[in-house]
Amino acid sequence: MLLRTNETIENKTLKNFLTSHQYLIHDLQIDPTGTILVSSSSDNCLKFYSNKDSTWKETFTLELEENTNIWKLAWSPSTFGSVIAGVTFQNEVVIISQTFENGKLQWKQQTTVCSLPDSIQKISFSPDELGLVLGVADSSGILHIYHAEDPSQPDTWQKHSEIIVANTCLRAFDWGLQPNYPVMIITAAINRSVKIWKFCEEGLKWESVLNLGIELEVYDIVWSNFVGRDFHLIAISTEEALEIWKIEKLKNNSYQNIEKERIAYFTQINDSIWKLGWNETGNVLASTSNKGIVKLWKSNLLGNWGCISTITGNEEEDDDDDDDDDELELEIEN
Fold first, then answer.
1. Residue 199 CB-half CA count within 13 A
2. CA atoms of 138 and 254, how far apart (whole Å)
3. 234 vs 16, 141, 203, 228, 301, CA distance in Å?
4. What is the pLDDT of residues 218-240, one digit of tens each?
5. Cβ contacts of residue 264 below 8 Å, gap of 6+?
6. Please, which residues bridge with residue 53 across strands?
7. Phi and psi (nearest 5°) for 79?
8. CATH superfamily of domain region 167-299
9. Fold of the 20-164 domain
10. pLDDT by residue (tens digit) across 55-88?
11. Which residue from 322, 318, 296, 291 is spatially nearest to 307, judged by alpha carbons?
12. Domains 20-164 and 167-299 share a fold
């Protein structure tokens, strides 16, 4: 991989590795520290990998309980140890955590957070300032929010609150946090409604404070960390474009007349962006498309955003028909 940072060029190598999954892999997620990778598959197993010397090596296989195939995964903040939420095909959210038993570290399926009647679209843990809190978006337009009674023992969860966003599918959401202010959430429903909500302690309810006015179907939304800036950054992928929005920093404990500005707009022609993600400092954005292309985006000193790197995945035929393992090879362009 060739990284360009101002005038510095650093050479990196992307390596491929085989998994021992027997069937289709549904999801892969790296923990917040960047040292543990977990994968879920139709073989009813989670596999864990450790990053040592820039090489991923399998360290543990967790056989899940019967009928617990997981298709979506999410890591909690590292403050609470190694905790994972997983969504099953039965619309259940289960918790897996790392434990110390029989003199060694291992992974264990702990409990079920919820079982919903409607299809689950997305799960995401809140920033650690709020405790061990998990949001679950469903196809009925409701965002369900749960919290662990004891974050050190994530086996008992309670319903905290919910946001009735729309009467149609809730496609995406993300958490926003500004010091000394209540937590905020941005949501996007299929009815092309993109709103920011604040939590009201009185009555334990959520109140809509801003509508971005986006009139396109939204695929994903990510809110960057509030680090070293006096404004918020929100990235949104729609059916037509990638958009980056600047939201004014809240002042005087007021949510009235919040200033908003779209500062970047990149039209996507025949290549819809499905997934977005910020780095820890919120200055580099990653996007993935339906053509298997990953792009990194960054602004220059003038505040103009642009693509700084493109990663393309190439499939190669496997000469060994008996080998069911999957292998990924990547190429980098700048």
1. 19
2. 30
3. 32, 21, 28, 15, 19
4. 999 999 988 888 899 999 999 99
5. 242, 243, 244, 297, 299, 304, 305
6. none
7. -55, -30
8. YVTN repeat-like/Quinoprotein amine dehydrogenase (2.130.10.10)
9. Methylamine Dehydrogenase; Chain H (2.130.10)
10. 899 999 999 988 889 999 999 999 999 999 999 9
11. 296
12. yes
List the domain boundaries for the chain: 20-164, 167-299
Instruction: Write down the residue that tokens 């474009």 correspond to.
Output: 241
Q: Is 129 helix (H, G, I), strand (E, B) or coil?
A: helix
Report which residue type is found at 97.
Answer: S
Two tokens, residue 227: 């680090």
| Residues 279/265, Cβ–Cβ less than 8 Å | no
Q: pLDDT tens, 239-285?
A: 999 999 999 888 776 777 788 999 999 998 778 899 999 998 999 99
Q: Spell out the residues 6+ positions from residue 153 whose beta carbon is closer than 8 angstroms to its own.
A: none
Q: Determine how many CB atoms are found less than 10 A away from the CB of residue 61.
A: 13
